[in-house]
Amino acid sequence: MALTTLDAKTALVVVDLQRGIVALPTAPHPSNEIVERSVTLLDAFRRHGLPVVLVNVAAGAPGRTDQGRHTGDFPAGFADLLPELKQQPSDHLVTKRTWGAFTNTDLAAYLQQQGVTQVVLAGIATSIGVESTARFASELGLNVTLVLDAMTDLNADAHANSITRIFPRLGETGTTQEVLDLLDSTRA
């Protein structure tokens, strides 16, 4: 489904644009393009006085997987948000220890307190942090918008699966420009 509208109280949630994640090889889009588009979205949401949530990951969740499990905290500096994001005092920071931004964090309470009914998601990695956050937001009954050209993955096939098979079932998808156009037209 194409992007149709933005609710009056829509929040931007930018997932894991931090030093350790952005340094990893990404596909199909290079991380610098994702950072650039996310900064454009951040500037627009702030200009319109809408809530901005910056998410970082500081550790891996416990438990075994076939691919092994990172235990403990990540190396120093790994979770540092990129300076390009220009974090503001009004931004809400969510530090997670799982894939999704809602589990064991205050994100749901913050959004409810702000009266948010819709989230716009961008970041890295499409099939991990972004998808997990989108799934939980959908389960909470929030309208979900996924900005497809403002996200990328560590694996091109995983990215393609998320955007073609999963995201159309969780919300509406669009581009950075489509979100910007809707922001400007509905908040003029």
TrEMBL record:
* Keywords, alphabetical: Hydrolase
Q: Which CDD domains match?
A: cysteine_hydrolases
Q: Which InterPro entries match?
A: Isochorismatase-like_dom, Isochorismatase-like_hydrls, Isochorismatase-like_sf
Q: Does the keyword Hydrolase apply?
A: yes
UniProt keyword Cell membrane, yes or no:
no
Picking any one GO molecular function of the record gives: hydrolase activity
Q: Which Gene3D superfamilies match?
A: Isochorismatase-like (3.40.50.850)
So which domain of life are we looking at?
Bacteria
The protein's name in its UniProt record: Hydrolase
Task: Give the source species.
Answer: Paraburkholderia monticola
